[in-house]
Write a structure and sequence with these properties.
- The complex is a heterotrimer of chains A (about 260), B (about 160) and C (about 800).
- Chain A is of the alpha+beta class and about 260 residues long.
- Helices cover about 30% and strands about 25% of the residues of chain A.
- Chain A has 10 helices and 12 strands.
- In chain A, the strands form 3 sheets. Chain A has a 5-stranded antiparallel β-sheet with strand order 4-5-8-6-7. Chain A has a 4-stranded antiparallel β-sheet with strand order 9-10-11-12, with helices on both faces. Chain A has a 3-stranded parallel β-sheet with strand order 1-3-2, with helices on one face.
- With about 160 residues, chain B is of the alpha+beta class.
- Chain B has 2 domains: about 80 residues, Beta-grasp domain (Ubiquitin-like (UB roll)); about 60 residues, [2Fe-2S]-binding domain (DNA polymerase, domain 1, Orthogonal Bundle).
- Chain B has a 5-stranded mixed β-sheet, with helices on both faces.
- In chain B, helix 2 packs across helix 5.
- With about 800 residues, chain C is α+β, with helices and mostly antiparallel strands.
- Chain C is globular and about 85 Å long.
- In chain C, the strands form 8 sheets. Chain C has a 7-stranded mixed β-sheet with strand order 3-5-1-13-10-11-12, sandwiched between helices. Chain C has a 5-stranded mixed β-sheet with strand order 7-17-16-15-8, with helices on both faces.
- Chain C has 3 domains: about 190 residues, Aldehyde oxidase/xanthine dehydrogenase, a/b hammerhead (Aldehyde Oxidoreductase, domain 3); about 325 residues, Aldehyde oxidase/xanthine dehydrogenase, molybdopterin binding domain (Aldehyde Oxidoreductase, domain 4); about 150 residues, Aldehyde oxidase/xanthine dehydrogenase, molybdopterin binding domain (Aldehyde Oxidoreductase, domain 4, 2-Layer Sandwich).
- Classes of the chains: A alpha+beta (about 260), B alpha+beta (about 160), C alpha+beta (about 800).
- Chains B and C meet through helix 2, helix 3, helix 4 and helix 5 of B and helix 1, helix 17 and strand 30 of C.
- Chain A: It comes from Szabonella alba.
């Protein structure tokens, strides 16, 4: 990979300052960025490591909300969020493999917005708020297509705030090689309705499935989504499955996610 | 070049690094500890797996400077103090849990991390935990058997036809 | 009970000690003082004409020592092919030039164009980005049938077409086969693809070249399954270095599965460059690079037909296969779809008439060569899928149809209609054993249980035969091999009785250091710990052919037996002298030489010491010392066989196939170390299940590899597989090697793919999807779903 300067700020303020320079890029867990850099597909001049900043770490719960520090690794979310938001913890426990979960972070995942990543489904499906050093961004405004987000240059995700639903479930049909989601569906039932977010399937990245939300808001059962279909037009087609297959899986995984939500 | 110091297998060690120096390279090239292997470049295979502050980490996906000051444990630090094989290592030998040996360091480190978290895993839990460690030789059968045996469970009935 | 450390004991592996403690010494662990690094700039297009290469900017980059292109290799040879196939018209195959670095054209993504040598690896990579290659892209040749069409773009301009050869086997049988089909009561036809695979041993390839000017001595450290073969090919055909000036070392090697048999361009390049730059040159492949530079496996497209009479006897078999060679001929590529494939088309059956046609085709893809099983998995897959399909069409039990057509024990030695002679076997016995260990009788109950969970359960069976220990040399020479296929061993007994055995076989996971020592320990009757097995270095082992084709114990082990017998014969002479007895009266038992019928004896160490300190020694009739070399050239292949059964569950909502259980009943002849044998089978099963369900090396329409990393090439993982039930108690010893062994390394990968696919088809058919008669591998969820809904 190309060489760069690695800086390890101890505080968010230092990190924001370090990110101000040209060519600087945030380094979270690095589980995607490092392989990308090995392929020489990224060439930051400076990497600002966020994993040593205490204020970006941790899981807290208050007033029906769970807040996850952006640099909290998946393993910690899986363990520490379980009591407060089991559906989210279960999703975190399905990302990558144990070693990846010990490094990869929620902030890194959301900033990268891989179209097959798990966390975008949780954030969008929960109606979470992405908190940055400058503002709060609603999940509905945050995800802007494959690898595209509302983040500005130099903006750092500091935390993700999840409203805790009455029930939630995530089911991932894994792409057999990468184990990313070929299709992953996150379903969350709130007092005022159900949200359904789909990852892995669409060329436009994570999306909400309005028809399923409407059906499930009326009847939160797997049967409620039987027969519902998403159009295959914008679905990803690749070695691992056609657009039609992914569209079909969206229905199957949604029903299973509802069952998982209990 | 930036000098990085950390504790590897209980010894304080230092080597010069660039920003891009990976922990795996720090170990292999900087310290000459070649037990940690590189089998891929996409963080999939797990041959490079080591423990950083007690947690399983793929050393090919972490920069050495990120883990300055950490406690790192590698395959070279897994044997007992007298040089004999640890329980996990011995189980791998007893149950033929390795063939070419290339994935073995990562497998042993991964198994050790699993058993630290979950001292009596089921077969399903072992298989699931090892999903980030690829082996091309064994078909995993004997690796899973070795990990279960290392946890003190009876493995004599595994893979044997019911009488 | 076998003696611990002797033949038949599950002796724990001695090599494990270093591997478990991080002390293995793999090629990438070797760093020579003064070493520099090489990086290969590779083509990113599948087919193109090189108009020019501008190195000026790159050569000025920091740390760059030298950049080599094809012009620098003008005076040396190309990468040779080790097998020449003669086609059905008596013409030798078309054999293209295979330059070390691309010369004039690039022919696949990954074809090396320039070798950049710099002080560090990163400097070499930096400089590679500054090399300006002017390439005109050409239409890539990808589809094999289109490649053979009139006027198709040619991969090699100087060949007449993209056809390497059109092989017919046995050509003289063709008319009789066609006639048998004309009068068949039933014909079953199947068209299928044997998917292209990437071997992916966990250790990527590495090569370190060194040159010592004071002695004119080259050394190559390389990740090879056969260092002597590399020395011969590279020394004699590429670089023109005589063997005594070239040492090739293959230290601990992290798996091969065939992909490390071949002589690769990078090996020649680092060796050549070491002399040019006067420094040791190291190249380490990344995994991404391995995907586009290691030889791939399989990639056949086949139509196969079976003719049966009105009593369901097989009367004839006919196949039509297109075999992808890739862009160049890798070392043994031409032999795989021919002599390692066509000769196995009889399978376990007494089909009297067989005709095999294979068209080998050049395409703009990575060269294809042997991968675990090599030709035999392709043969077995076709045949065992076909027999299963025939049984379904005829409404008979697939097990019964197989049994009815099996070659029976009384028929051995059995001359097949495809040239080979099976020496021994008992296929009914392995089938019986399989049905027992897989609890076939309980299948219906398990299927019903699956159905309660909405899952479709199926049972699939396959019976395979393979040919291992390819030989004899004089025969394979007639078939086009440009090498002998013997194996060698030197047994060096030291003065105090310890033994070093130098073998031409190479262990890269097979455990030779343990099992070979068991053989010698058993023969002499001493502790196995007194015996070391040495391999992998041409400077100390006799010329050997290496390890592939499940040959090591059958051929290499036989050479060790031969050399050890020479040792024992000489030791008996020494013992006779020491005991003042007749040589004919000396018996060796448990490491002691005794005079029959007396209590007079001398122990092993007493004899070995006398050999090296020959004070009391028959010097007039016997040389001092105790060291013998033997070369063993087998008189026939060995023929392991076995019955495999797979049970799967299909999720009808997603098409996902879960392998619930897999049972293997193999006949490997005699067994030296059951633990190692079982491990070999388990590993082979995982690769075969991987081929059947997961692994897919696929190119897009531009010749770009779609599955170019572990992110898209699905390697079997621990949670993809069940525990395996492996049995090797059915034994018909090989009749023509001294150990009676057959070889076990490839069986798992050969027998399992058809068992898995048969199980999936069984599950779908039982669930009413009668129209699904075949799904190509890998049987991915998407393919199963499409088939069910097609």
């Amino acid at each position: 990979m190309y060489d760069f300067e690695l800086v390890k700020p101890a505080s968010l303020a230092e990190a924001v300052k370090a990110m101000g320079d040209d060519g600087a890029q945030a380094l979270a867990g690095g589980q995607t960025l490092v392989p990308t850099m090995k392929q020489r597909l990224a060439s930051p001049e400076r990497l600002v490591s966020l994993t040593g900043i205490a204020e970006l770490q941790g899981v807290s719960a208050a007033e029906g909300r769970v807040t996850i520090g952006a640099a909290t690794c998946h393993a910690d979310v899986a363990a520490k969020a379980a009591a407060h938001y089991p559906g989210l913890a279960a999703l975190a426990g399905q990302i990558g493999d144990p070693a990846v979960r010990n490094r990869g972070t929620i902030g890194g995942s959301l900033a990268n917005n891989d179209p097959s990543a798990c966390y975008p489904a949780a954030a969008l499906g929960s109606g979470a708020t992405i908190v940055t050093n400058t503002r709060d961004i609603a999940a509905d405004d945050y995800f802007q297509g494959m690898f595209a987000t509302a983040l500005e240059e130099g903006e750092i995700i500091t935390a993700v705030r999840f409203p805790v639903p009455q029930a939630a479930g995530y089911v991932k049909f894994a792409q057999p090689a990468s184990r990313f989601a070929l299709v992953g569906v996150f379903v969350a039932r709130f007092a005022d309705g159900v949200r359904v977010a789909v990852t892995g399937a669409s060329n436009n990245g994570v999306f909400r499935w309005a028809e399923a939300e409407a059906a499930l808001s009326g009847d939160f059962s797997a049967d409620a989504v039987t027969g519902l279909t998403v159009p295959a037009d914008d679905m990803i087609a690749d070695l691992h499955g056609s657009a039609e297959y992914r569209a079909h899986l969206v229905g199957v995984m949604t029903a299973r996610a509802v069952r998982a939500a209990g | 070049m930036t000098k990085v110091t950390m504790t590897v297998n209980g010894k304080t060690v230092s080597a010069d690094t660039e920003g891009r120096t990976l922990l795996s390279s720090f170990l292999r090239d900087g310290l000459g500890m070649t037990g940690t292997h590189i089998g891929c470049d996409t963080s999939q295979c797990g041959a490079c797996l080591v423990h950083v502050d007690g947690k399983a980490v793929k050393s090919c996906s972490v920069f050495a400077q990120e883990v300055a000051g950490a406690q790192v444990r590698t395959i070279e630090g897994m044997a007992n103090a007298d040089g004999s094989l640890s329980v996990i290592q011995q189980a791998f030998q007893d149950h033929h849990g390795l063939q070419c040996g290339f994935c073995t360091p990562g497998m042993v480190m991964s198994a050790a991390a699993l058993l630290a978290e979950n001292p009596k895993p089921t077969e399903h839990e072992v298989r699931h935990y090892l999903e980030g460690n690829l082996c091309r030789c064994t078909g995993y059968h004997n690796i899973v058997k070795a990990v279960l045996a290392a946890s003190g469970q009876d493995v004599s009935g595994l893979g044997v036809a019911a009488e | 009970m076998p003696k611990d450390g002797g033949i038949g004991a599950s002796t724990k592996r001695r090599e494990d000690m270093r591997f478990l403690t991080g002390k293995g010494r793999y090629t990438d662990d070797i760093n020579i003082r003064g070493q520099v690094h090489a990086h290969f700039l590779r083509s990113d297009v599948a087919h193109g004409r090189i108009n020019g290469i501008d190195l000026s900017a790159a050569e000025a980059m920091p740390g760059v020592l030298r950049i080599l292109t094809a012009a620098d290799f003008a005076a040396v040879g190309g990468i040779p092919c080790g097998w020449q196939v003669t086609d059905r018209h008596g013409q030798v195959m078309q054999e293209p030039k295979h330059p070390v670095l691309a010369d004039g054209k690039v022919r696949h993504v990954g074809d090396p164009i320039a070798m950049i040598i710099a002080e560090t690896y990163e400097q070499a990579r930096d400089a590679a980005e500054a090399v300006l290659v002017d390439i005109t892209e050409l239409t890539p040749v990808l589809d094999m049938k289109a490649a053979l069409a009139e006027g198709a773009v040619k991969v090699h301009d100087d060949l007449t077409s993209n056809l390497c050869y059109d092989w017919g086997f046995v050509e003289e049988n063709k008319a009789a086969v066609d006639a048998a089909f004309a009068k068949a009561a039933h014909v079953t036809t199947l068209e299928l693809v044997n998917n292209r695979l990437v071997a992916n041993p966990m250790e990527p390839r590495v090569a370190v070249g060194d040159f010592e000017s004071h002695s004119d001595q080259y050394t190559l450290y390389t990740t090879s399954q056969n260092p002597h073969v590399i020395r011969l090919l590279m020394g004699a055909f590429v670089l023109g270095i005589p063997e005594h000036k070239l040492r090739v070392v293959a230290p601990d090697v992290g798996g091969g599965f065939g992909s490390k048999i071949y002589h690769y361009a990078e090996e020649a390049a680092v060796t050549f460059a070491a002399r040019l730059v006067g420094r040791p040159v190291k190249w380490t492949s990344s995994r991404s690079e391995a995907f586009i530079s290691d030889a791939h496996g399989r990639d056949h497209v086949t139509k196969i037909e079976l003719a049966l009479d009105d009593e369901n006897n097989f009367t004839a078999l006919r196949t039509d296969t297109y075999a992808n060679m890739g862009a160049y001929l890798s070392t043994f590529a031409p032999s795989i779809p021919t002599w390692l494939h066509g000769t196995l088309m009889a399978g376990n059956y007494k089909t009297p008439l067989i005709y095999v046609n294979v068209k080998a085709v050049f395409t703009n893809t990575v060269p294809v060569d042997a991968y675990r099983g090599a030709g035999r998995p392709e043969a077995t897959f076709q045949l065992e899928r076909l027999v299963d399909k025939a049984a379904r069409e005829l409404g008979v039990d697939p097990v019964d149809l197989r049994r009815q057509n099996f070659i029976t024990p009384d028929m051995f030695p059995y001359q097949t209609p495809v040239a080979v002679v099976y020496d021994t076997g008992n296929y009914q016995a392995t089938m019986d054993k399989l049905l027992e260990i897989s609890d076939h009788a309980g299948f219906e109950a398990r299927r019903a249980e699956s159905a309660t969970r909405g899952k479709l359960r199926g049972f699939g069976i396959a019976h395979y035969i393979e040919a291992c220990g390819i030989a004899p040399s004089n025969l394979v020479g007639q078939l086009g091999a440009r090498a002998g296929l013997y194996e060698s061993a030197t047994v060096r007994v030291n003065a105090t009785g310890s033994i070093s055995v130098y073998t031409g076989s190479h262990s890269h996971g097979q455990g030779h250091e343990t099992s070979f020592a068991q053989v010698v320990a058993e023969m002499i009757g001493i502790d196995a710990n007194q015996i070391d097995i040495v391999h992998g270095d041409t400077s100390n082992t006799p010329m050997g052919m290496g390890t592939y084709g499940s040959r090591s114990l059958a051929v290499g082990g036989s050479a060790i037996v031969k050399a050890t017998n020479k040792i024992i014969n000489k030791a008996k002479k020494i013992a006779a002298h020491l005991l003042e007895a007749s040589e004919a009266d000396i018996e060796l038992k448990d490491g002691k030489f005794a005079v029959a019928g007396t209590d007079k004896s001398v122990d092993w160490a007493g004899v070995t010491l006398a050999a090296y300190v020959p004070h009391n020694y028959p010097l007039e009739s016997l040389e001092p010392g105790l060291e013998e070399t033997a070369f063993y050239d087998p008189s026939n292949f060995t023929y392991p066989s076995g019955a495999y059964g797979c049970e799967v569950e299909v999720d009808p909502d997603t098409g996902k196939v879960q392998v619930l259980s897999f049972a293997a009943a193999d006949d490997f002849g005699n067994i030296v170390n059951p633990m190692i044998v079982e491990g070999q089978v388990q590993g082979g099963l995982a690769q075969g299940i991987g081929q059947a369900l997961l692994e897919n090396c696929a190119y897009d329409g531009n010749g770009q590899l779609l599955s170019g990393s572990f992110m898209d090439y699905a390697m079997p993982r621990a949670d993809d597989l069940p525990m395996f039930t492996v049995d090797h108690s059915c034994i018909t010893p090989c009749t023509h090697n001294p150990l009676g062994v057959k070889g076990c390394g490839e069986a798992g990968a050969i027998g399992s793919p058809p068992a898995v696919v048969n199980a999936v088809i069984d599950a779908l058919q039982r669930a009413g999807h009668a129209h699904v008669t075949h799904i190509d591998m890998p049987v991915t969820p998407a393919r199963v779903w499409a088939a069910m809904n097609g």
